[in-house]
Every structure is written in structure tokens, then in C-alpha cells.
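Researcher: Let's walk through a ligand-bound prediction step by step. First, I give you the protein sequence. Second, the SMILES string for flavin mononucleotide. Third, you return the three-dimensional complex as C-alpha cells. Ready?
Model: Ready.
Researcher: Here are steps one and two:
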Amino acid sequence: MNILQVNSSARAAASASTRLANSIVERLRADNPGANLVVRDVGSNPHPVLDEAALGALFTPAEQRTPAQAARVALDDVLIAEIQAADVVVLGVPMYNLGVPAQFKNWIDAIARAKVTFQYTANGVEGLLKGKKVYVALARGGKYRGTDWDAQVPYLKVVLGFLGMTDVSFFYAEGLAMGPEAEQQAFAEAQREIEAAFA
Ligand SMILES: Cc1cc2nc3c(=O)[nH]c(=O)nc-3n(C[C@H](O)[C@H](O)[C@H](O)COP(=O)(O)O)c2cc1C
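Model: Step three, the predicted complex:
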């Protein structure tokens, strides 16, 4: 089993989403001792934004790219190869200003490539990253689960589904800014939900 863990918090040691993602990975490894783990941390090792130079590189045929363009495309190729190789994907996703971190979006922009990870057919869009199980570890200062203010979960379901990843489970650490008791409860509840999911 190949596990890909993608962390996207700007924080290293103090990150709640990474802590939760680690917990999911620990559980997966306990059940699959031989599992191979790749950790991609786009918080501490940011991926470049999709700017005009990047688009120019992507839309230039491979054999005509300048060395700089080839190098830019190669950065995305690495992330695409990682997700293609993964059987299980664990995403650590903090809430920043009601959305996903810009670095997480940069990761999505890197892995979404026409004819490689999705394609359009006569029947519409077809995601090509099929057969993967995805776990998402969410961390929020407030509480939004199941409400209209939670724009992250609908977005993640749609964008992951677009790429072919339709088997997605969400774990929530919410209310982390609502005092130490709420924080403790949030982690305990998230941990319970993880244990229940792997029971
Ligand atoms: C820049 C920034 C924006 C944030 N925006 C929100 C927000 O819109 N809603 C919310 O509930 N929490 C918000 N928070 C709180 C974080 O979601 C919370 O601290 C969470 O633990 C961050 O994930 P992390 O611990 O993995 O870094 C924000 C935190 C930061 C640093």
C-alpha cells in the first residue's frame, strides 16, 4: 500500500490539521505495517502558484519548452507522480478565511492536468485518479460542520471527484479557537471518529 500524506498548514509543529492527518496515517500503518509513506508538505515547502509563466510552460509542447519551462512543468510532474502512485491519500487542510490554504490550492492546480488526471469525453468530465481512498483532516478555529459556512467540504468533494477521487472521508477538529476545553474536546472527538472509521 502506498500512502500519500499532504500537509498544507503554514505551521509546523503546532498544526492541528497535521496532527490529525498524522493520527490517520498512524492508524493506516498499524493496519498495514508494510505500507509505504510519502509526505508532501506544501506548507513548509510551498509549491509555486499557477502564473502566466507556468501556464505558458504547460501549454508549450514538451519538445519546444525552454529549460526554464521544462523545469517548471517538472515541479508539477513530481506531485502528479506522487498522487498517481498513491492507493490512499491523507490530506491535512486548515481553514484559512473560510477556504483552503493557498498552498493547498496550488497543490490542486499542480495535480489537475488535462488528459493526465482528468479528461473530457462525449459524456462529460472523467477523473483519471481512480480507485483511491481519501481521508481529509480538517482544522478550524470556529464550528462550521454541516452549515452553509463550510465551503471547504463541498469544494473538496467536487474537486477531488472531478479528478476521480470519489471515496472521501472527512474528519473535523473544530472550535479550536473557542478555549482550551473546546480545543481538547475537538481533538478527543476527532480521535473518536478516526477510531470508529478504522474499527
Ligand atoms: C490566516 C488564518 C485564517 C483563519 N481563518 C479561519 C476561518 O475563516 N475560520 C475558522 O474557523 N478558523 C480560521 N482560522 C483558524 C484556523 O483554522 C485554526 O487555527 C486551525 O487550527 C489551523 O490549522 P492548523 O492548526 O493545521 O494550522 C484561521 C487561522 C489563520 C492563521
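Researcher: And what stands out?
Model: The mean pLDDT is 97. The first helix runs from residue 16 to 31.
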